[in-house]
Each structure stands twice: as C-alpha cells, then as structure tokens.
Amino acid sequence: MAAGPARWNRPDPASRPRSPSDLGAWLLRHDDGDRTEFITLSLWDSVDAIRAFAGDDIDAAVLYPEDARYLVGESTVTHYQVVAQVQPAPGQAREPHDEER
User: Fold this and answer.
1) Separation CA 88–CA 57 (nearest Å)
2) For 55-80, what is the HEC assignment?
3) C-beta separation of 12 from 37 below 8 A
4) What is the DSSP letter of 4?
5) Residue 12, SS3 per DSSP
6) What is each CA distance from 73 to 27, 35, 52, in whole angstroms?
7) pLDDT tens digits, residue range 46-95?
8) What's this model's pTM, rounded to 2 decimal places?
C-alpha cells in the first residue's frame, strides 16, 4: 500500500487509536495521477462518543502531527446518520487483495 495517513500505515491496522464507542472504520483511497486522496469513514455509537474522541468541535478534523506530511489543502469532516445497513452474505466478507490496497 502506498503511504497513507500515519495512524493507518502500520503493520497492524487494529493498532490505530480506538475508543470504546468506536464501532469501526474504513480507509478509502483514490489515486488520481500524481495525487492520492483518502477518506476515513468511521462509525460511532453516538454524537457524545464523537465528542469524547474529537473534543467539543466535532466538525474539526482530528489530525496527528505525523499526518501533516500527507495533507494537501484542507481536511474536512461531515457527519451522517446511518439509516440502513446491508451485511455481506455469510462467508462473503473479505479483506482487499494486495493489488486493491
């Protein structure tokens, strides 16, 4: 995988910072020429849980010092409510192949 946000670029992605109210996260990547964009999609059990992680301003991105070398422009945060969920069929969930990472 190409370099990405430092908290994700570890041998064990499960070692990323976690909170008891953190229901999981995905790191999405889009290569566009010489630029790569990342979107972090995280799920939380409540707005209060987000606030406990992010602080009072939940609309500000939580960044770590090592993230600065990857940032181009502004980091943004948008909150959504989950209104539906589709689970993979039993036995169908998988990790991305190396060429997909």
Assistant:
1) 34
2) CCCCCCCCCCHHHHHHCCCCCCCCCC
3) no
4) -
5) coil
6) 19, 12, 26
7) 999 889 888 899 999 888 787 777 777 788 899 999 899 888 788 776 76
8) 0.65
